[in-house]
Amino acid sequence: MNALQTLAQAAGVAYAAGLNLYATIGIIGLGSRFGWIGPLPGSLTGLSSWWVIGVALTLMLIEFSASLVPAVASIWDTLHSLIRPPAAAALAAATAWHGDPLFVLVAALLGGGLAVTTHTTKLGLRYAIDASPEPITNGVTSVTELTLVATISLALWQHPFLTLLFALIVLAILIAMVRLIWRTLRQVFSGRWVPRHGFLQDARTSDRLERRADDHE
Q1: Which of 14, 8, 17, 55 is nearest to 145 (CA)?
Q2: What distance in Å separates the CA atoms of residue 63 and residue 99, rounded to the nearest whole number?
Q3: What is the crossing angle of helices 70-79 and 50-67, to 10°?
Q4: pTM for this one?
């Protein structure tokens, strides 16, 4: 296995772990156990332990349940800002563990940086979604997230470069979505968003004041 392929796999694992650490570990472990993916590189072979898989899947179910409750979902993801990025960096380093120490360090730094990006993007999306009190959006988002994590975790070992490219494209789309959602929410809360006439309008309060001034003239 060449160095670039290992680096792509390390980055892909960290990417998925930044979104959902427990699902990534559990799915990779199950994939290795049932032969869905080939032998795991580096020190990732430990993920195929039934103990590791069991704990990871249990925590994954707890996280999924927490994600269905708007306020709890935000608190859970905020607390995991201290867990996902460093754990993702460790997984990236484990992927390249049997390589040159400098290469392992590069993999850890790259994985950690990518995990920070995916986690922060998810956190921004979660905060925006939690502005709505209904649980349906949270559920759809969590199921979509698990589907994405499972796809990356399983496809990464056969097609590392294509999978990583696909993951980065999805990340770019998610970042754009988060920016659009937050921009729209700011307009809604400031009274400048009017669906019938477009997304961005002059403040409705200002409109009324201007019309009153025109009537007096």
Answers
A1: 17
A2: 34
A3: 140
A4: 0.83
- Residue 169 token pair: 């494209």
Percent of the chain with pLDDT over 70: 82
pLDDT tens-digit map of 173-191: 999 988 887 677 666 556 5
- Domain layout of the chain by residue ranges: 3-161
Angle between helices 84-95 and 101-129 (to 10 degrees): 150
Burial class (CB in 10 A: 0-12, 13-18, 19+), 100: exposed
H/E/C letters for each residue in 3-63?
Answer: HHHHHHHHHHHHHHHHHCHHHHHHHHHHHHHCCCCCCCCCCHHHHHCHHHHHHHHHHHHHH
One-letter amino acid for residue 207 of the chain? D
SS3 for 179?
helix
pLDDT tens-digit series, residues 33-87: 999 998 898 889 999 999 999 999 999 999 999 998 888 888 999 999 999 999 9
